[in-house]
Amino acid sequence: MNFNDLLIKNNIDPSHVIMLRHRPYEPALNKAFLWIASERHDLFDAYQATQPIPLEKAMARLTGSGYIASFIGHKPGRALFVGIYKIESSTPLSYAQFWSRAEFKELSERFGMAGFQKDKNHPSLLYFNLKPTGIHADWNGKLTIAWTPPERSWWRRAHRNDMRIVSILEESALLKPVPKWREINLSWQELQALPQQWRVALAQWRGVYYIFDESDGKGYVGSAYGEFNIYGRWLNYAKSGHGGNKLLKNRDPRNFQFSIVERVSPDMPPDEIISLERTWKKRLHTEAPNGLNEN
User: Whole-prediction pTM value?
Assistant: First the structure.
């Protein structure tokens, strides 16, 4: 069975469908993209609402009558189903209008998306209103198809391609299971789109964490034991970039990696956790000037 068979069974003409295999070339965005598709629908919808000129023209011709079938290139030669969207309408956006939208600002500032670049030959682009159809929404993140070569051809006319359905998973591949605490190593960008089950786990864990700055190899040690524990503390970093720590304020948080060096009992008193934190500062040499702990 191929994907066109699925469209026909749902009374959709494959000639009215464009298939998109999203695979952002920006490293930080690509790393967090599965989570964004699962947890940040506002950012995912904005990401696919504007397209390069050739695809924009193709979608414009289908406005009001056509669809996009959205996938993510999660593995070589494979595409993970995200949903089928009706191309309802489009609105021209100037350069200034594009960058005034909060979603595009966040995608750029937090995830490094290039976005709309000034071009005198193309002073505006189309923003498509893409409405989820709900068709096989229960297979979002579960249905995988074989994306025929060449992979760099990331958008296709459905009726001109035979995309075989490879598998339908029991659990969504958009949701990565929570790893053991010792294995957690998250970028600052990934903190912006943590899946709900990760947030729940981190909110239950208290202990000592480590922030590594890839730009110069310096580190910071902190402890978490207050409301929402490690998640609550890391949420502060996700929002501000520095969490109120003086030596982190003038650094680019996009270079930060977050890990847990010691997880403790949920009823360990705060003063004992702070004592542990001090020992880790000594062992990891994070006190200034060698590291990023002021004291």
Answer: 0.85
